[in-house]
Specification:
The complex is a heterodimer of chains A (118) and B (113).
Chain A: E1 5-7, E2 10-13, E3 19-24, E4 31-37, E5 44-50, E6 53-56, E7 65-68, E8 75-79, E9 88-95, E10 107-109, E11 113-117
Parallel strand pairs in A: 2-11
Antiparallel strand pairs in A: 1-3, 3-8, 4-5, 4-9, 5-6, 7-8, 9-10, 9-11
Chain B: E1 3-5, E2 10-14, E3 19-21, E4 24-26, E5 32-39, E6 46-52, E7 59-61, E8 64-69, E9 74-79, E10 88-96, E11 102-103, E12 107-112
Parallel strand pairs in B: 2-12
Antiparallel strand pairs in B: 1-4, 3-9, 5-6, 5-10, 7-8, 8-9, 10-11, 10-12
The chains are: A mainly beta (118), B mainly beta (113).
Chain lengths: 118, 113
């Protein structure tokens, strides 16, 4: 598609429920990033994929967070046993090149999924 | 480690006023990039500008201009003759080569008619 697509747009989950957030990057984009944006704050890095390989997951806040990109295109961020502190907007971004592989850092962000845990 | 500070949490101006959004960054690398993004109420991050650490030339794009000063580690953003459609949250971000974005906390700009 023309942009990065994320679904669902909004998700309300009961505490303890598992959720799955989807990101459809721009076709052909090598890099895919997930960011978490808490209310009133800037986005914070969660994890990075280069094609299907998850090269950096240093930002995942706990082992309840899991991300995958099995075919190097669509990615899913899964949160198990959601907690209230997981409430945030989850942003996905993609880029044509691999991280650190060039000087053209053209990133496209999706509109995000707003997760509310009640 | 990278750090980005946006000291202004919220700014309100009346339409047609000029407004400057401040950004101060910290980085240990000599090669880095600085960005400004706009986040309207719809939530997506809209790219505005990217500068690399070797290019301190200021830039103007329509009503937008950016002042990059390495001596003060600042990358300020000015909107001239602001419009209501400029109302949004604006994020400054840094990116060291091969690393991830580090965003500032954002500045919420409200332009009143």
């Amino acid at each position: 598609g023309a942009g990065v697509s994320q679904s669902p747009r909004y998700k309300v989950a009961k505490r303890g429920q598992d959720v799955a957030l989807r990101c459809d990057p721009i076709s052909g984009h090598v890099s895919l990033f997930w960011y978490q944006q808490a209310l009133g704050q800037g986005p914070e890095f969660l994890t990075y994929f280069q094609n299907e390989a998850q090269l950096d997951k240093s930002g995942l806040p706990s082992d309840r967070f899991f991300a995958e990109r099995p075919e190097g295109s669509v990615s899913t961020l899964k949160i198990q046993r959601t907690q209230q502190e997981d409430s945030a907007v989850y942003l996905c971004a993609s880029s044509l090149i691999g991280r650190g592989q060039g000087s053209d850092y053209g990133y496209t962000f999706g509109s995000g999924t707003r997760l509310t845990v009640v | 480690a990278q750090k980005v500070t946006q000291a202004q949490t919220e700014i309100s101006v009346v339409e047609k006023e000029d407004v400057t959004l401040d950004c101060v960054y910290e980085t240990r690398d000599t090669t880095y990039y600085l960005f400004w993004y706009k986040q309207p109420p719809s939530g997506e991050l809209v790219f505005l500008i990217r500068r690399n650490s070797f290019d301190e030339q200021n830039e103007i794009s329509g009503r937008y201009s950016w002042n990059f000063q390495k001596s003060t580690s600042s990358f300020n953003f000015t909107i001239t003759a602001s419009q209501v459609v400029d109302s949004a949250v604006y994020f400054c971000a840094s990116l060291e080569y091969g690393q991830n974005f580090v965003f500032g906390p954002g500045t919420r700009l409200s332009v009143l008619p």
